[in-house]
Write a structure and sequence with these properties.
single chain, about 170 residues, alpha+beta, flat
Length: about 170
């Protein structure tokens, strides 16, 4: 599915003025995995060149995200959280510039993961009008803090801090 909007100028019957109206639309496409199609040129089957040594993983970060018990899938070239199916999709670790880029992207997607109804049930809505809500930045910051606290609770970060360990920080 592709979502977008077009803008149309229409005459307002009451005022006689031209007004712009945004019309959202969805367009569906049938797509196939490249492995499902025979006879394509070789460049369609090309794998992304590894950018990062797979050994460069950060043990504390790996443990932190593993402790959250989220379903994290790897593959493709996009990172996202799929709420309907409840999983985080990440490109392969090796395709990132460095470990920090991978873990900060994963932290960002895991923050979205916390919005699921079975977790924090956060909903900021799909369409934000910032100029009509002067407190929006404070609400968004509060949601982000709740998400970070929720994720940290899985790893026992508070106990680690009490023991004098430096906690893994979320980079989102």
């Amino acid at each position: 599915m592709y979502a977008n909007a077009i803008t149309r100028t229409e005459r307002d019957e009451k005022t006689g003025e031209d007004v712009e109206r945004e019309i959202p639309y969805l367009k569906g496409y049938t797509v196939f995995n490249v492995e499902q199609i025979d006879g394509l040129p070789d460049h369609y089957y090309a794998k992304a060149a590894p950018q990062l040594d797979p050994v460069a993983r950060v043990d504390r970060a790996e443990k932190f995200f593993t402790d959250c018990k989220a379903t994290i899938r790897h593959g493709g070239n996009r990172a996202y959280y799929a709420q309907e199916i409840d999983y985080v999709q990440m490109p392969p670790f090796e395709s990132f510039r460095d470990a920090e880029s991978y873990y900060s992207t994963l932290a960002h997607e895991m923050t979205h993961w916390t919005k699921h109804p079975s977790r924090l049930a956060r909903d900021l809505g799909r369409k934000l009008v910032l100029k009509n809500d002067t407190r929006f930045i404070f609400k968004a910051a509060a949601h982000a803090q709740r998400a970070a606290d929720y994720l940290r609770a899985f790893s026992g970060t508070d106990a680690a801090r009490a023991a004098g360990e430096q906690p893994f920080s979320l980079l989102c």
